[in-house]
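Protein modeling request. Please complete all fields; requests missing the sequence field cannot be processed.
Requester role: graduate student
Desired output: 3D structure, token encoding
Chains: 1
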Amino acid sequence: MVDASVAVMWFIEEMGHDKAVALAENGNVLIAPDLIFPEVGNVLRRKVRQGLISETQASMAVRRLPEAFRRIVPCADLNEIAFAMASKLDHSVYDAIYLACAMTAPVGRLVTVDEKFRAKATAAGYGDKILNLDAAYALVTTSQENDNG
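Delivered output (149 residues):
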């Protein structure tokens, strides 16, 4: 599972783009809270306003985003646990929604580029459920090497 910070990278060539794409293309079962759609849309809109991407590029990304996920979890199903996590972490409920979503899958892990959030989550005991992009990419490439091996 990925948060909006990683999902945006699928569509925009910025640092980490190749690693983020590899996560999506490696046959990983991706789930996300329904919050991912407005969050990614908001980031894309901001990048259009800043002149970093075109309106056409952003529209295409918004249209294609749902195709990346096998399952979408309603935020209403995650809100209570996310609120408790956010209080424990002293962090936003928005980010905690993604971590709560990762916890709904037995082997689910959240991949994020938000190092501040990842550090807080790890310190609070959720380190087995959250990875940065580099660590997730390393797992994907190691898995591919083992499969081809």
